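Deliverable D4.2, example record:
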Amino acid sequence: MNKPINPTAGPALRTAIVTGASRGIGRAIAMRLAQDGYRVVVNYSGNQAKAADVVAGIRAAGGQAIAVKADVSEADDVRRLFDEARQVYGAIDAVVHSAGIMTLAPISPDHVDTFDRMVRTNLRGAFLVLGQAAAELTHGGRIVAISTSVIAKAFPHYGGYIASKAGVEGLVRVLANELRGRGMTVNAVAPGPVATELFMEGKTQAQIAELSNMVPLQRLGTPQDIANAVSFLAGPDGGWINGQVLRANGGFA
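Output generated by the structure prediction step:
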């Protein structure tokens, strides 16, 4: 059952773009920001049906949302995503960059194509989305990127993914300084192991149980756990947090 939207909660009549919002963490973020009073632009790259389901869920709870297809690694697509958001809702007040891919592979010339795909989506995509957000957000806007807490673990076969997400954290810190004087915050949320399709893919039940037990709270995170952290950074209570990485991981790292 969808939680009803509180029209008086958070920044009423403000607009947020959430990339990669058709499933998993992105979906939970979109739903939570709608509950906080944001009108939400649900970005997706391929699965129109899932994006439409997110929009329908937000609207059923009394919120406002549209879906916009765009590949975050393509500059023209990113510009069009922002253009469509402005055409429907006017000014854009927050951007949450959640779109990303993870494919495990060793650091080897045999897997350079896998590396290139992750860098293109995860790092180039962040560069384009964060850069467009910096150019278009209103004074006092909020930018949040999704990183990963696995950066601190250096697990085998995570090299390409960790490299791409470490780059995202670097972009966040630099952009926070570049936006000096505009009242805007730029932060990242770095989830630990979260029970999503992206996390579960390619893992055995034994591997999932092992990763769960590595967390002091002895459970996997949920997409809602991450959405709650994003909500804090995008809301009024997060206004003094800037250029930071919030590691929402249950103590995983």
